[in-house]
Design a protein that fits this description.
Strand order of the largest sheet: 4-3-2-1-5-6
Bound molecules: zinc ion
Distance between the termini: 43 Å
Structural class: alpha+beta
Length: about 375
Amino acid sequence: VTLPPLDASRRLDGLRAVLAEHDVTAVLITDLMNIRYLSGFSGSAGRLLVLPDDAVLVTDGRYGDQAAEEIAAVGAPARVLVGRTQAVQREHLAELVSSVERLAVEAAALTVAEHEGLAAAFHPDLVVTNGIVEQLRDRKDAGEIARIERASAVADAALAEVAHRLGDGIDERTFAAELEFAMRMGGADGPSFDTIVAGGPNSAFPHHRPNDRRIVEGDLVIVDFGALVDGYHSDMTRTFTVGDPTPQAERLYAAVAEAESAGLAAIAPGVRGESVHEVCRDVLARHGLAEHFLHGTGHGVGLRIHEAPWLTPSSTDVIEAGNVVTCEPGVYLVGIGGVRIEDAVVVTDHGCRAVTRSPKDQPCLPSPRTT
Ligand code: ZN
Ligand code: ZN
Protein backbone atom coordinates (compact mmCIF):
# COMPACT_ATOMS: atom_id res chain seq x y z
CA VAL A 1 0.00 0.00 0.00
CA THR A 2 1.54 3.30 -1.05
CA LEU A 3 1.43 6.44 1.05
CA PRO A 4 0.67 9.80 -0.55
CA PRO A 5 3.89 11.74 -1.24
CA LEU A 6 5.08 14.29 1.31
CA ASP A 7 4.93 17.86 0.04
CA ALA A 8 7.64 20.22 1.29
CA SER A 9 7.36 22.66 -1.60
CA ARG A 10 6.07 25.55 0.54
CA ARG A 11 7.70 24.88 3.91
CA LEU A 12 10.84 26.93 3.25
CA ASP A 13 8.68 29.94 2.38
CA GLY A 14 6.72 29.35 5.58
CA LEU A 15 9.99 29.50 7.49
CA ARG A 16 11.06 32.69 5.67
CA ALA A 17 7.84 34.33 6.84
CA VAL A 18 8.67 33.37 10.43
CA LEU A 19 12.21 34.73 10.00
CA ALA A 20 10.82 38.07 8.85
CA GLU A 21 9.04 38.35 12.22
CA HIS A 22 12.48 38.03 13.84
CA ASP A 23 13.93 40.65 11.48
CA VAL A 24 16.30 38.07 9.97
CA THR A 25 16.54 36.87 6.37
CA ALA A 26 18.80 33.82 6.75
CA VAL A 27 18.98 30.85 9.10
CA LEU A 28 21.29 27.89 9.58
CA ILE A 29 19.15 24.87 10.49
CA THR A 30 21.11 22.34 12.57
CA ASP A 31 18.30 20.22 14.08
CA LEU A 32 18.14 17.06 11.93
CA MET A 33 14.35 16.69 12.35
CA ASN A 34 13.86 20.28 11.25
CA ILE A 35 16.16 19.65 8.27
CA ARG A 36 14.07 16.59 7.41
CA TYR A 37 10.83 18.57 7.69
CA LEU A 38 12.07 21.40 5.47
CA SER A 39 14.00 19.41 2.87
CA GLY A 40 13.09 15.72 3.12
CA PHE A 41 16.73 14.82 3.89
CA SER A 42 16.79 11.95 6.41
CA GLY A 43 20.55 11.43 6.85
CA SER A 44 22.43 11.75 10.11
CA ALA A 45 24.73 14.66 9.20
CA GLY A 46 24.04 17.92 7.46
CA ARG A 47 23.19 21.57 7.83
CA LEU A 48 20.55 23.47 5.92
CA LEU A 49 21.24 27.10 5.12
CA VAL A 50 18.09 29.00 4.23
CA LEU A 51 18.67 32.29 2.40
CA PRO A 52 16.11 34.71 0.94
CA ASP A 53 16.27 33.16 -2.57
CA ASP A 54 18.20 29.96 -1.98
CA ALA A 55 18.35 26.94 0.31
CA VAL A 56 21.47 24.79 0.48
CA LEU A 57 21.92 21.48 2.26
CA VAL A 58 25.60 21.04 3.11
CA THR A 59 26.45 17.44 3.90
CA ASP A 60 29.28 14.92 3.55
CA GLY A 61 30.23 12.44 0.84
CA ARG A 62 28.05 9.64 2.18
CA TYR A 63 24.86 11.59 1.61
CA GLY A 64 25.20 13.58 -1.60
CA ASP A 65 23.07 11.33 -3.84
CA GLN A 66 20.60 10.39 -1.11
CA ALA A 67 20.03 14.04 -0.23
CA ALA A 68 19.38 15.03 -3.83
CA GLU A 69 16.86 12.19 -4.23
CA GLU A 70 15.06 12.93 -0.98
CA ILE A 71 14.86 16.66 -1.68
CA ALA A 72 13.38 15.96 -5.12
CA ALA A 73 10.88 13.45 -3.67
CA VAL A 74 9.24 16.08 -1.43
CA GLY A 75 9.57 18.93 -3.95
CA ALA A 76 11.66 21.12 -1.68
CA PRO A 77 13.24 24.10 -3.49
CA ALA A 78 16.72 23.35 -2.13
CA ARG A 79 20.05 22.18 -3.52
CA VAL A 80 22.87 20.01 -2.17
CA LEU A 81 26.50 20.94 -1.65
CA VAL A 82 28.88 18.15 -0.60
CA GLY A 83 31.98 18.80 1.46
CA ARG A 84 34.10 15.74 2.10
CA THR A 85 35.56 17.14 5.30
CA GLN A 86 34.14 19.33 8.06
CA ALA A 87 36.60 22.04 7.05
CA VAL A 88 35.39 22.08 3.44
CA GLN A 89 31.76 22.13 4.59
CA ARG A 90 32.55 25.13 6.81
CA GLU A 91 34.20 26.87 3.84
CA HIS A 92 31.08 26.27 1.72
CA LEU A 93 28.87 27.76 4.42
CA ALA A 94 31.18 30.72 5.03
CA GLU A 95 31.08 31.57 1.35
CA LEU A 96 27.30 31.29 1.17
CA VAL A 97 26.74 33.59 4.16
CA SER A 98 29.37 36.14 3.14
CA SER A 99 26.71 38.67 2.14
CA VAL A 100 24.41 37.94 5.11
CA GLU A 101 24.45 40.47 7.94
CA ARG A 102 22.47 38.61 10.57
CA LEU A 103 22.24 34.81 10.59
CA ALA A 104 19.68 33.03 12.75
CA VAL A 105 20.69 29.79 14.51
CA GLU A 106 18.67 27.25 16.50
CA ALA A 107 19.36 27.53 20.22
CA ALA A 108 18.12 24.01 20.97
CA ALA A 109 20.27 22.37 18.31
CA LEU A 110 23.65 24.01 18.65
CA THR A 111 26.27 23.18 21.27
CA VAL A 112 28.31 25.93 22.86
CA ALA A 113 31.36 24.64 20.95
CA GLU A 114 29.49 24.75 17.63
CA HIS A 115 28.22 28.23 18.37
CA GLU A 116 31.75 29.42 19.08
CA GLY A 117 32.99 27.72 15.91
CA LEU A 118 30.34 29.44 13.79
CA ALA A 119 30.96 32.81 15.40
CA ALA A 120 34.67 32.48 14.66
CA ALA A 121 34.26 31.20 11.10
CA PHE A 122 31.42 33.43 9.89
CA HIS A 123 31.34 37.15 9.73
CA PRO A 124 27.54 37.67 10.27
CA ASP A 125 26.05 38.31 13.68
CA LEU A 126 24.44 35.16 15.03
CA VAL A 127 20.83 35.59 16.19
CA VAL A 128 19.69 32.88 18.59
CA THR A 129 16.13 31.63 17.96
CA ASN A 130 13.84 29.11 19.62
CA GLY A 131 11.29 26.84 17.98
CA ILE A 132 11.04 28.68 14.66
CA VAL A 133 10.66 25.45 12.68
CA GLU A 134 8.87 23.56 15.45
CA GLN A 135 6.07 26.14 15.33
CA LEU A 136 5.49 25.14 11.70
CA ARG A 137 5.85 21.43 12.39
CA ASP A 138 3.06 21.22 14.96
CA ARG A 139 0.30 21.55 12.33
CA LYS A 140 0.50 18.41 10.23
CA ASP A 141 -0.47 18.29 6.55
CA ALA A 142 -2.24 15.43 4.79
CA GLY A 143 0.94 13.52 3.91
CA GLU A 144 2.16 13.66 7.51
CA ILE A 145 -1.21 12.62 8.95
CA ALA A 146 -1.34 9.69 6.52
CA ARG A 147 2.02 8.47 7.89
CA ILE A 148 0.99 8.84 11.53
CA GLU A 149 -2.26 7.01 10.75
CA ARG A 150 -0.36 4.23 9.00
CA ALA A 151 2.04 3.92 11.94
CA SER A 152 -0.92 3.79 14.33
CA ALA A 153 -2.67 1.13 12.25
CA VAL A 154 0.50 -0.98 12.17
CA ALA A 155 0.73 -0.72 15.97
CA ASP A 156 -2.96 -1.59 16.40
CA ALA A 157 -2.57 -4.68 14.20
CA ALA A 158 0.59 -5.80 16.01
CA LEU A 159 -1.08 -5.55 19.41
CA ALA A 160 -4.14 -7.46 18.18
CA GLU A 161 -1.79 -10.18 16.93
CA VAL A 162 0.24 -10.67 20.10
CA ALA A 163 -1.93 -9.46 23.04
CA HIS A 164 -3.08 -13.00 23.84
CA ARG A 165 0.54 -13.89 24.67
CA LEU A 166 0.18 -11.91 27.92
CA GLY A 167 -1.94 -14.84 29.12
CA ASP A 168 0.85 -17.35 28.46
CA GLY A 169 3.06 -16.54 31.42
CA ILE A 170 5.38 -14.60 29.12
CA ASP A 171 8.03 -12.26 30.57
CA GLU A 172 7.97 -8.52 29.89
CA ARG A 173 11.11 -8.46 27.76
CA THR A 174 9.92 -11.25 25.45
CA PHE A 175 6.50 -9.68 25.03
CA ALA A 176 8.09 -6.34 24.10
CA ALA A 177 10.28 -8.10 21.53
CA GLU A 178 7.32 -9.99 20.04
CA LEU A 179 5.31 -6.79 19.78
CA GLU A 180 8.19 -4.97 18.07
CA PHE A 181 8.72 -7.93 15.73
CA ALA A 182 5.03 -7.89 14.79
CA MET A 183 5.24 -4.15 14.06
CA ARG A 184 8.26 -4.62 11.79
CA MET A 185 6.58 -7.50 9.97
CA GLY A 186 3.49 -5.32 9.59
CA GLY A 187 5.43 -2.59 7.79
CA ALA A 188 7.02 -0.45 10.52
CA ASP A 189 10.57 0.80 10.01
CA GLY A 190 11.02 0.08 13.73
CA PRO A 191 9.46 0.87 17.08
CA SER A 192 8.95 4.60 17.64
CA PHE A 193 10.62 4.30 21.08
CA ASP A 194 11.68 1.52 23.44
CA THR A 195 8.48 -0.43 24.09
CA ILE A 196 7.24 -0.25 27.68
CA VAL A 197 5.79 -3.46 29.14
CA ALA A 198 5.18 -3.16 32.88
CA GLY A 199 3.40 -5.98 34.72
CA GLY A 200 2.13 -6.25 38.30
CA PRO A 201 4.13 -4.07 40.72
CA ASN A 202 6.26 -2.80 37.83
CA SER A 203 3.20 -1.04 36.38
CA ALA A 204 3.45 1.46 39.25
CA PHE A 205 6.44 3.00 37.42
CA PRO A 206 5.33 5.06 34.40
CA HIS A 207 8.47 4.42 32.33
CA HIS A 208 9.48 0.98 33.58
CA ARG A 209 11.93 -0.89 31.33
CA PRO A 210 10.79 -4.42 30.45
CA ASN A 211 12.68 -7.10 32.39
CA ASP A 212 12.54 -10.85 32.99
CA ARG A 213 9.52 -10.77 35.28
CA ARG A 214 6.77 -13.07 34.08
CA ILE A 215 3.21 -11.80 33.79
CA VAL A 216 1.02 -13.67 36.30
CA GLU A 217 -2.66 -13.86 37.14
CA GLY A 218 -3.96 -10.72 38.81
CA ASP A 219 -1.41 -8.43 37.17
CA LEU A 220 -2.20 -5.07 35.69
CA VAL A 221 0.00 -4.79 32.58
CA ILE A 222 0.79 -1.44 30.95
CA VAL A 223 1.88 -1.66 27.30
CA ASP A 224 3.04 1.68 25.83
CA PHE A 225 4.45 1.52 22.32
CA GLY A 226 4.40 2.86 18.81
CA ALA A 227 5.54 2.25 15.26
CA LEU A 228 7.74 4.35 13.02
CA VAL A 229 6.67 4.78 9.38
CA ASP A 230 8.66 6.94 6.96
CA GLY A 231 9.96 9.12 9.80
CA TYR A 232 6.62 9.55 11.59
CA HIS A 233 5.71 8.06 14.96
CA SER A 234 2.67 6.58 16.60
CA ASP A 235 2.04 6.38 20.35
CA MET A 236 -0.53 4.34 22.26
CA THR A 237 -0.92 2.76 25.70
CA ARG A 238 -3.25 -0.01 26.73
CA THR A 239 -3.53 -1.55 30.18
CA PHE A 240 -4.59 -5.16 30.52
CA THR A 241 -5.62 -7.23 33.49
CA VAL A 242 -4.63 -10.86 33.41
CA GLY A 243 -7.29 -13.16 34.78
CA ASP A 244 -10.14 -11.67 36.80
CA PRO A 245 -9.32 -8.12 37.88
CA THR A 246 -9.32 -7.33 41.58
CA PRO A 247 -11.97 -4.80 42.68
CA GLN A 248 -9.15 -2.29 43.15
CA ALA A 249 -7.81 -2.85 39.62
CA GLU A 250 -11.33 -2.41 38.24
CA ARG A 251 -11.72 0.82 40.17
CA LEU A 252 -8.39 2.22 38.93
CA TYR A 253 -9.15 1.21 35.35
CA ALA A 254 -12.60 2.80 35.39
CA ALA A 255 -11.23 6.06 36.82
CA VAL A 256 -8.45 6.34 34.21
CA ALA A 257 -10.82 5.39 31.37
CA GLU A 258 -13.21 8.12 32.51
CA ALA A 259 -10.35 10.65 32.70
CA GLU A 260 -9.11 9.70 29.25
CA SER A 261 -12.58 10.02 27.68
CA ALA A 262 -13.04 13.42 29.31
CA GLY A 263 -9.63 14.54 28.07
CA LEU A 264 -10.34 13.38 24.52
CA ALA A 265 -13.71 15.17 24.59
CA ALA A 266 -11.95 18.40 25.62
CA ILE A 267 -9.42 18.41 22.76
CA ALA A 268 -10.41 21.00 20.14
CA PRO A 269 -8.93 24.02 18.36
CA GLY A 270 -8.51 27.03 20.63
CA VAL A 271 -8.30 24.95 23.82
CA ARG A 272 -5.21 25.44 25.95
CA GLY A 273 -3.05 22.34 26.45
CA GLU A 274 -3.06 23.07 30.16
CA SER A 275 -6.89 22.89 30.21
CA VAL A 276 -6.95 19.35 28.81
CA HIS A 277 -4.59 18.32 31.58
CA GLU A 278 -6.87 19.94 34.16
CA VAL A 279 -9.88 18.06 32.80
CA CYS A 280 -8.11 14.71 33.28
CA ARG A 281 -6.74 15.68 36.64
CA ASP A 282 -10.17 16.79 37.89
CA VAL A 283 -11.72 13.42 37.01
CA LEU A 284 -8.95 11.59 38.85
CA ALA A 285 -9.28 13.98 41.79
CA ARG A 286 -12.98 13.09 42.09
CA HIS A 287 -11.86 9.46 42.42
CA GLY A 288 -9.32 10.42 45.07
CA LEU A 289 -6.45 9.61 42.71
CA ALA A 290 -5.01 13.03 41.75
CA GLU A 291 -1.83 12.50 43.76
CA HIS A 292 -1.17 9.28 41.83
CA PHE A 293 -1.26 11.02 38.41
CA LEU A 294 2.48 11.53 38.02
CA HIS A 295 2.93 13.10 34.59
CA GLY A 296 1.46 15.46 32.02
CA THR A 297 -1.61 14.46 30.02
CA GLY A 298 -0.16 14.53 26.54
CA HIS A 299 2.16 15.77 23.83
CA GLY A 300 2.35 16.31 20.11
CA VAL A 301 3.49 13.40 17.91
CA GLY A 302 5.19 13.68 14.54
CA LEU A 303 8.79 13.44 13.37
CA ARG A 304 9.59 13.26 17.10
CA ILE A 305 7.72 11.05 19.51
CA HIS A 306 7.41 13.96 21.96
CA GLU A 307 6.96 17.43 20.48
CA ALA A 308 4.77 20.51 20.72
CA PRO A 309 2.02 21.18 21.55
CA TRP A 310 2.23 20.09 25.18
CA LEU A 311 -0.83 19.10 27.24
CA THR A 312 0.84 19.63 30.59
CA PRO A 313 0.23 21.75 33.70
CA SER A 314 2.90 24.27 32.71
CA SER A 315 2.07 24.45 28.99
CA THR A 316 1.18 27.73 27.32
CA ASP A 317 0.41 25.99 24.01
CA VAL A 318 -2.99 26.39 22.38
CA ILE A 319 -4.34 23.44 20.40
CA GLU A 320 -4.87 24.03 16.66
CA ALA A 321 -6.50 22.07 13.85
CA GLY A 322 -3.88 19.79 12.29
CA ASN A 323 -2.13 19.06 15.57
CA VAL A 324 -1.62 15.40 16.41
CA VAL A 325 -1.60 14.98 20.18
CA THR A 326 -1.87 12.23 22.76
CA CYS A 327 -4.17 11.99 25.75
CA GLU A 328 -2.64 9.66 28.33
CA PRO A 329 -3.74 10.01 31.93
CA GLY A 330 -2.48 7.35 34.33
CA VAL A 331 -2.38 6.46 38.01
CA TYR A 332 0.44 4.64 39.79
CA LEU A 333 0.28 3.04 43.25
CA VAL A 334 3.58 1.66 44.47
CA GLY A 335 3.19 -1.94 45.67
CA ILE A 336 -0.10 -2.33 43.80
CA GLY A 337 0.35 -1.29 40.20
CA GLY A 338 -0.75 1.27 37.68
CA VAL A 339 -3.09 2.01 34.82
CA ARG A 340 -2.45 4.26 31.82
CA ILE A 341 -4.62 4.63 28.73
CA GLU A 342 -3.29 6.62 25.79
CA ASP A 343 -4.63 7.49 22.39
CA ALA A 344 -3.29 9.78 19.71
CA VAL A 345 -5.74 12.05 17.90
CA VAL A 346 -5.76 14.42 14.95
CA VAL A 347 -7.28 17.76 15.88
CA THR A 348 -10.06 18.64 13.42
CA ASP A 349 -11.94 21.93 12.91
CA HIS A 350 -14.37 21.16 15.72
CA GLY A 351 -12.79 18.48 17.91
CA CYS A 352 -10.56 15.50 17.29
CA ARG A 353 -10.50 12.05 15.77
CA ALA A 354 -8.51 9.12 17.16
CA VAL A 355 -5.81 7.55 15.02
CA THR A 356 -5.13 4.76 17.53
CA ARG A 357 -8.01 2.28 17.49
CA SER A 358 -7.17 -0.70 19.70
CA PRO A 359 -10.13 -1.64 21.93
CA LYS A 360 -10.20 -0.27 25.46
CA ASP A 361 -13.43 -1.74 26.79
CA GLN A 362 -12.21 -5.32 27.23
CA PRO A 363 -8.93 -5.12 29.09
CA CYS A 364 -9.18 -8.65 30.56
CA LEU A 365 -7.08 -11.42 29.14
CA PRO A 366 -7.39 -15.13 29.98
CA SER A 367 -5.53 -16.36 33.04
CA PRO A 368 -2.04 -17.63 32.38
CA ARG A 369 -1.80 -21.38 32.00
CA THR A 370 -0.61 -22.98 35.20
CA THR A 371 0.69 -26.24 33.73
ZN1 ZN B 1 3.05 6.37 24.91
ZN1 ZN C 1 2.85 9.50 24.83
